[in-house]
Amino acid sequence: MVYADEVFVVNFAMNYILLLAAAKLCGAGAKRWRMAVAAAAGGGYAVAAALRPFLGNPVIAGAIGLAIAVGAFGMRGVARRAVAFFAVSAAVAGLAMAMFGGRLRMNLGVLAIAFGACYAAVSLALQRVARPTGGYSELEIRQGTRTIRLRALRDSGNSLKDPVTGASVAVAPLTDLLPLFERETREVLQTLNKRGAHVVLSDLGALANAPSFRLIPYNAVGVRGGLLLAFRPDGVTVDGASQNLLVAVSPTALADNVAYSALINY
C-alpha cells in the first residue's frame, strides 16, 4: 500500500535538502522559495511515478531532475549546479542504502530521520569543497538595543575603505539591515534602489533619530564611480571580536546566495 501524501511529503523534503546541499557545494544558491517550488514539483513527479511506473524510466527521471535544478537555480550556470544536485542525490541515496541495506520502504518518521542523518554526513564531507577560499565569519551588528547576526564571506576582493577614516567597510543587503533602524529610517532606506544613494542620504539627514550615514565610492564590473550608502553601527563584532567597521547597504541581495549574506575584507 502506497500513500500519495506520504510519497509527496518525503520526496519534497528530500528534494529540498538535496537542493540546499547542491547550493552549498557550488558556493551559490537560489532563493528559498524557488527551491521549495522545485522540490514540490519533484514531489508531484514522485507521486505520478508511483501511480504510473513508466514515468520512473531513467531518461524521464533524469529530465525531471534537470528541470528541478533549472527551477531552483535558473539557467545561469545550470550545468554545474545540476551536476552538483545529481552528485549529492547519489551520495545521499548511497548512504541511505548503506544504512538500511537497501530496505528503504519504511514509515515517514524513520525515513525522515535517515535522510536527515545522511544530509548531515554529506554536508560535513563536502564542507571544505563547498567553502570559498576566503571562508566564512559570523558578523554581528548592533545599533542601539537592536542586534542582527549575519554569515559573512571573507572576501579579499572587497577593498572598500572609508575615504575619510580609512576604516574597512563590510557590505550587507538592505533587507537584512532594516531591523536595526526605527520606522522612519526604514521607510526612507526602502526607496534606496529606486532613488539612489545620494538622494536617500539627503532624506536621512533630515531625520532626528537616524544614524549618521555617508557615501562610500566603489568600482565593480560594469560600474565605475558608484556610491554605496554606509553607516557606522554602535558595535560590530567578527567571530566575537570587536572591529572598527563601517557597514555599507546593498540595495539587493549579494549573489542570491544561501551560504552567506554579507561581505567583509579579512
What can you see in these coordinates?
The protein is elongated. The longest helix has 23 residues. The chain has 266 residues and is an alpha+beta fold. It has a five-stranded mixed beta sheet with strand order 7-6-1-2-9, with no helix packed on it. Strands 3-8-5-4 form a four-stranded mixed beta sheet. The protein is built from ten helices and nine strands.
SSE diagram, text form:
Elements: H1 4-26, H2 32-51, H3 58-73, H4 78-100, H5 108-125, H6 127-130, E1 136-143, E2 146-154, E3 168-173, H7 174-177, H8 183-189, H9 192-195, H10 197-205, E4 213-220, E5 223-231, E6 235-238, E7 241-242, E8 245-250, E9 262-264
Parallel strand pairs: 2-9, 3-8
Antiparallel strand pairs: 1-2, 1-6, 4-5, 5-8, 6-7
Helix pairs in contact: 1-2, 1-4, 1-5, 2-3, 3-4, 4-5
